[in-house]
Amino acid sequence: MPNKKKETAFFCSECGYESAKWMGQCPSCHAWNTMVEAPIPSKEKASSILRGGSLSAGARTGLPDSYRRPVPLSAVEERGEERWSTGYGELDRVLGGGIVRGSMVLVGGDPGIGKSTLLLQVTGNLAAAGHSVLYISGEESLHQIKLRADRIGKMSDNLRFLCETNLDTITEILLEEKPQLCVIDSIQTMYNDSVTAAAGSISQVRETTGVLLRLAKETGITFFIIGHVTKEGTVAGPRVLEHMVDTVLYFEGDRYASYRIIRGVKNRFGSTNEIGIFEMRREGLCEVANPSEYMLSGRPEGASGSVVSCTMDGTRAMLTEVQALVCKSNFGFPKRQATGTDYNRVSLLMAVLEKRLGVPLSEYDAYVNLAGGIRQTEPALDLGISMAILSSYRNVPAGDRTVAFGEVGLSGEVRMVTMADIRVQEAAKLGFTTIILPKSNLRGIKAPDGVEMIGIRSLQEAADFLR
């Protein structure tokens, strides 16, 4: 009997688009050369545990059987979201107030950034609070996990560990143990027997995540899954993985620096504009309650080219030191370099300074850096960057107790920014006495005690301040 031909399809590695034939450009996301061939999962080998098993529909979902039929929203009973605190206020803020029961959270980040360490600490906190937690690792042995856990601190017996990569075995254990929370470390190491592709391939990641997602919704188990990232900084595997889960968190930061930023990219249960800041120490990750003070530590006093600006991440104001160095160019083509912010935006601001203020920056090399290794691209940084460049060019300090923020237009005007009152309060809280901001933002803001607010309309007025 001839062998049955193996059925395959082509998937876009960027958006997950499926096609029966190869194409040079994905018709969905228009990316080039992203179509990858992968086997189609066998329907006959699909997991029978989730299709039926010993659990009835109502028992698996915890809802009346009538809810498994189409109903109007008026027939749905309102239920408050059950949330658990992770033990870290920074992470709770990013999650929208805590972990939601039955949700699936994807945590991505560079290798060695601290994803496993953070989730081990979070599961330790939840276990200590009385929650049953199962940590499934496909990359490390139990001895390796124990070495890290001993460095972090004592773990409760409510936290149990399992080293396994077979999805069918994991599913059976989860249905038997019924933990409240489960960590998968990592999704690229798990494999489903119904998929003939290798672990970590597009097909395996898609099918494995789909089974775990259905398990989360039908049993109420909360999942945290760790995903490796590609060199472009996105989660490895099809981007459809991000569309499947409820929440996507990215762990950012230089692995050789001490700070870490966890940022919400997608969140069905809260805002996606929040960030949490942690510091990597010997005993693990510790949350930074006052990031502004942390980012400004070690700032030089009386130095030219240094200006403090205020940016917003969601509802959080953060003071950041903008450093600029302007020096005479020894070559015919001046050098430009920007670290921590958009290079094109810095070039644009330098062109505005040369055109509107007559500063001959085309004859000078310019280097702009956001101190602390943080990356920000908010338009409110424009005024701080412009003043830092002018301060370095004129070799005039801007003042140690001065904060400047505002968006700069191509005509040299300083435009208003959002949430100016929160920025002013943050600056005043850290002892800054002079705040330079757009004049249009002065309306409705009361200056805190001991703080002088200077409203400006153009870069020329900001330049007059640096005399």
When the domains are counted, the total is 3
Q: What's the rounded overall pLDDT mean?
A: 86
CATH superfamily of the largest domain: P-loop containing nucleotide triphosphate hydrolases
Total beta strand runs:
23
Multimeric organization: single chain
Q: Level of helix content? A: 25-40%
CATH level-3 fold name of the largest domain: Rossmann fold
Specify the CATH architecture of the largest domain: 3-Layer(aba) Sandwich
Q: How many strands, what sense, and barrel or not for the largest sheet?
A: 9 strands, mixed
Tell me, what is the CATH class of the largest domain? Alpha Beta
By secondary-structure content and strand pairing, the structural class works out as alpha/beta
* Approximate strand percentage: 25-35%
Our count of helices gives: 13
Strand order, sheet with most strands: 8-7-9-10-6-11-12-13-14
CA-based shape: globular
Describe the protein.
The N and C termini lie far apart (90 Å). The protein folds into three domains: 8-39; 83-289, P-loop containing nucleotide triphosphate hydrolases (Rossmann fold); 294-465, Ribosomal Protein S5, domain 2 (2-Layer Sandwich). Helix 10 (343-357) crosses helix 11 (382-394). It has helices at residues 48-51, 57-61, 89-95, 115-128, 142-152, 167-177, 202-219, 240-244, 291-296, 343-357, 382-394, 420-429, 459-465, and strands spanning 8-12, 18-19, 35-39, 83-84, 99-100, 104-109, 133-137, 159-163, 181-185, 222-228, 247-252, 259-267, 275-281, 284-287, 306-313, 316-328, 336-339, 364-370, 402-404, 407-408, 414-415, 434-438, 452-456. The radius of gyration is 27 Å and the shape is globular. The longest helix is centred in the middle third of the chain and has 18 residues, at 202-219. With 467 residues, it is an alpha/beta fold. Helix 10 (343-357) links the parallel strand 17 (336-339) and strand 18. Mean pLDDT is 86; it is low at 45-63.
